[in-house]
Amino acid sequence: MLKTELLELIANGENSGIEFKRDDIRPEQLAKEVVAMANFQGGRVLLGVEDDGTVSSVQRPDLEEWVMNIFQNKIHPMILPFYEEVKLDDGKTVAVVSFPIGISKPYVLRHSGKEEIYIRVGTTSRLATREQQMRLFELGGMLHTEVMPVPRTDMSCLDDARLMNYIRDILRDPDVPQSTEAWQARLLGLGFLTEAAGNICCTIAGLILFGKNPRRYLKQAGLRMMAFQGDDKEYQAALDEIIDGPMVGRWDISNGDKQLVDGGIIERFMEAMTPFISQQSADVNTELRREIQWLYALEAVREALVNALAHRDWTRFVEIEVSAYSNRLEIISPGTLPNSMTIEKMKAGQRSPRNTIVMEVLRDYGYVDSRGMGVRTKIVPLTKALTGKEPEFELTEDYLKTVLYR
Questions:
Q1: Which of these ranges, 53-57, 256-260, 268-272, 275-279, has the smallest mean pLDDT?
Q2: What are all long-range contacts of 74-77, with beta carbons under 8 Å and residues at least 24 apart?
């Protein structure tokens, strides 16, 4: 690091990725800051700098070894930092300890026989709440929330007709269960049921895919739809409705053609939102009917909705939100992208499903294609072809927003 770069970092002060510390701090204090930043976006600790940005210089003769021992003994899983010392013109030295965003979250501080999880909030490092810990475990691939039990549920909360339709008609399984016990065993094997505290409960995946009334037990299930005449959330909405029910539809494929018998959330959304994403043509066709003109690429809308349903973060206690405005359609999926996925990787076609059971079932029904590259092959090109405008993707720690312009 150049001296000018270091001085600029110091001048800008501490933030979520920069921490100033003296080198006479206790080992657990340094480990705490590193753990918090690794659980966020990574960062740098500048040793030999006071909280107010005054350079006090490093004093320890064995500072690098001391730092490496802390990383080895106090931080788990292990992080390999980059250590360098920068000497300033006045003879003072600052040690810069850099480390990237962690890929094995959550990182913990091991101290006094305990393991503590910290997160970065602005310029401070705080103990993670239970909900924040769940998100970190999920991001690190150590927790799959879709297979967690939903309290107060049992097999009766699932739609028998849809389950039969899935096993017999969609999967074409020749061994259809014939008894309650056989059904329970099959649904446990599929991950739609699980055992918790001696009881058989629905998993999140089972409930949202096949549940009769998922929101009765899981408040963030379902889908909220809104429509506004203007380009922002006006006081009076033309549509404000929450759809509850199973995610998948029930289909008749007995004649070789796939015919919808009873729609799920996806079909019900498309039906309810159609008046707000289309308009009737001014001209009539040869059958004296006015044709529907779609304001958005229909497959792009459907794909964006399916992505939100398939990849949402179930540790977030809000429902998916779809809002139609006079100039755009917004689909907000709770939670950030899983693992190390970025918007750029998503647009390039990289795949990293958060909820694999949900994703596979939606693929069985044909709601998603086998390639799983809907952003690259549908949302982006179809939207641009119809409207001439690129869709936008906004990612925060709380949500992924997909914006389709008219």
A1: 256-260
A2: 74/27, 74/28, 74/30, 74/31, 74/109, 74/110, 74/111, 75/31, 75/34, 75/35, 75/38, 75/107, 75/108, 75/109, 75/110, 76/107, 76/108, 76/110, 76/115, 77/104, 77/107
Which DSSP category does 41 fall into? Answer: T
Q: Which residue has the higher pLDDT, 56 or 291?
A: 56
Q: Is 39 helix (H, G, I), strand (E, B) or coil?
A: coil
pLDDT digits (tens, 9 = 90+) for 109-147: 999 999 999 999 999 999 999 888 888 887 776 667 899
| Distance in angstroms (rounded) separating the CA atoms of residues 20 and 32 | 13
Radius of gyration of the chain (CA): 26
| Rounded Cα distance, 205 and 310, in Å | 10
Tell me what the mean pLDDT of segment 79-108 comes to: 92
3-state secondary structure of 321: strand
Handedness of CA 334, 336, 341, 343 (dihedral sign): positive
Q: Give residue-wise pLDDT tens across range 44-72.
A: 999 999 999 999 999 999 999 999 999 99
Confirm if 370 and 381 have CB atoms less than 8 A apart.
no
Read out DSSP for 226-294? Answer: EE-SSSS--SS-SEEEEE-S-SS-EEE-TTSS-EEEE--HHHHHHHHHGGGSEEEEEEE-TTS-EEEEE
Neighbours of 321 (CB within 10 A): 18
Residues 116 and 128 sit within 8 Å (Cβ to Cβ): no
- The pLDDT of residue 394 is 95
Distance in angstroms (rounded) separating the CA atoms of residues 201 and 183: 13
Cβ-based neighbours of 359, under 8 Å, separated by 6 or more: 310, 311, 353, 368, 372
In this structure, the number of other CB atoms found within 10 A of the CB of residue 152 comes to 11
Contact 16, 41 (CB under 8 A): yes
How far is the C-alpha of 321 from the C-alpha of 308, rounded, in Å?
9
What the block records as the tokens of 263 is: 């729609």
